[in-house]
Design a protein that fits this description.
Distance between the termini: 35 Å
Largest sheet: none
Low-confidence stretches: 90-95, 102-107
Order of helices and strands: HH
Number of helices: 2
Helix content: over 70%
Number of strands: 0
Shape: rod-shaped
Radius of gyration: 20 Å
Length: about 110
């Protein structure tokens, strides 16, 4: 297999990978919207001692979804960095001045 064919297969795999991530993020966004609607419709102030408890419970429901979205975003940034290197748009060991973190996208 030639180098060009190898790069082409890598790009196809990355494309499928990103498409699947987009589908997952879309599903998570719908899940978050449904959770928001359910919480607003079913968890009224009558169910809690005070407003602080109500807000705390609502935040607990959304924390897990936010963690998943943040993790997937970090994974996408890392994948984009690898594709950037693969395409030869920058130095392999270079830093991203806009990011300011020395090129560490896994933090």
């Amino acid at each position: 297999m030639s180098r060009i064919e190898s790069y082409h297969k890598m790009m196809q795999a990355a494309s499928r990978f990103q498409y699947n991530i987009a589908l997952i993020l879309e599903a998570k966004a719908l899940e978050a919207a449904r959770s928001c609607q359910w919480i607003c419709g079913h968890l009224s102030s009558a169910h809690f001692a005070d407003h602080g408890d109500q807000v705390k419970k609502s935040l607990e429901v959304h924390d897990q979804m936010i963690e998943v979205i943040e993790s997937m975003t970090k994974m996408e940034i890392a994948l984009a960095k690898h594709l950037h290197i693969l395409l030869g748009s920058g130095e392999a060991g270079g830093t991203d001045p806009a990011n300011g973190d020395g090129g560490n996208y896994y933090s």
